[in-house]
Amino acid sequence: MSVIDHPLDIIQDLFIKNWKLEQSNEKNEFGVQEYFQSLFDTREKLLEIPLLDAQSINTLPVNSLVRLRCMVQDTELAQEVALFASTVITRPDGEQKLVCHRYSDGPQEDHEMYSGSNQDIMDLRNSYYCVSVPGESQWVKEYERSGASSLDESLKEMKLGDTASPMVIPERYPFPDGDHFAAVVKTHSSDATIGVTDMIEVIGVLGVSDRVMTGNAFEIHDEFTNAPRIPTVHAILMRKMEDHGHPELGLNGHPEQDDIQMCAKDAAAIRKDLIQYVSSAVYGDQLAAELVLLHFLARVYLRPSGAVLGKFSLNLKDTSTNSTVPRNLTRIMKNILPKVHAIPMTLQNLNNNFFFPRGDEQLSSGILQVTRGTALVLDETAMDEGTLVDKGLKNLKTVSDVSMFQTLNYNFPFHNLEFQTDISLLIVSLGNSLIPVDCAIALMPEALAGTQPVEPTEEQLHSFRKYISVYRLAEYKFSEEIAKEIETEFMEERKAASAAGTTLMSSNELAFNISLAR
């Protein structure tokens, strides 16, 4: 019996073996999660499960086992009452038995509900509205599809016209008019650790497409009959992924010791080649390339007493006519970073779109509602003359808050909610940026910058990707001796500045210097 083709049969066997009727108030897992965890305990085994996306939804059968990598866009879908188990009569033999429905839409086609049963057990389900990981790079998508070779071949044989686009709710995806895939993930448990913008990997049973209901589940809305049908997945395993999103770093996306040791062996050579590759996008400016690499490696690692340690927003000032830096940097970043998106900071974009999420009965997305670890390239060289309206000013304030505090406000009719985030902002501008940043540098083109750069090999790209992800996520702590030396030097610099009548180094500047050193 194939667990991928017939997961419900496996679940029913576990139900019969491990569940007792007297446990009906507990409705525990009866060994399902443990069984599937043991089956798919490595990344290689997980890749054998068909990936659910905009293409495969047209070929994968309902009730098969699927894998979904996605961002949680909304956790507040209506809770629903569903069957946990019921007595059915099987066709055509007429056998009467108790069947588990926890990971399905209800009784199957060959099951008939037994009307005389008093053993029907109900359950509560929570639902998350999930979307494709915003800005996910092509090389990540290709890796995630690499295990399902038979599925890939069947998709290649399909004509483009034969593929129906799955339904989505456009305002629930961060990037306006962006192609994406959406699914409703249904789970019987309410995991308080999973929230909006979390990147998750779900292993579950593909359900039928269902209309997304908002508001009170027991009210009838006229518009509900016209709501789009969104694919559903009944989650067996739901794992929060490490924010950076590199697909090869263990089951939770975090680097293991072997990854760190492997990168350390060739770190100097990889770093040298990587600097040269990045410098080709910034007119050969080596210092700018060094800062861009530090920007790639930066992440928020601590928030003591309101401070934000580890963030590193960067502004590259390019005074050349018709700057190519935003386009070139975006191309390079998409080759080596897992999640990248470029945003032209035009007046039309600022005045007409929402950069912040907002909601009433349902949460509409904003351009900045992305997963932590996403790299955004803000192109201010595209800005033209004109007036920013109230929405545009509010959008600028939203970007500034992310740059300085790594927080994003979600706007609701009667209140705002502030969520912590960790979004990398790289801003290219003609002069000083409109956005306050941690570091700004004017580009200084090298004399030989006009020569055509040599594109890295696939092997080099692989090493660049691993190097950045591993060292971005690897833990590093200063020793007590180094910490004491930093403290002493800080105090001495403040004394010297006080004696000279110059500006004292602030605690924020110290935190920034420590982050760079780290």
From TrEMBL:
Signal peptide: none annotated. Its main location: nucleus. InterPro entries: MCM_complex-bd (IPR019140). GO terms for cellular component: nucleus. One of its GO terms (molecular function) is chromatin binding. Keywords: Nucleus. It is found in: Nucleus. GO terms for biological process: DNA-templated DNA replication. This is Mini-chromosome maintenance complex-binding protein. It comes from Mortierella polycephala.
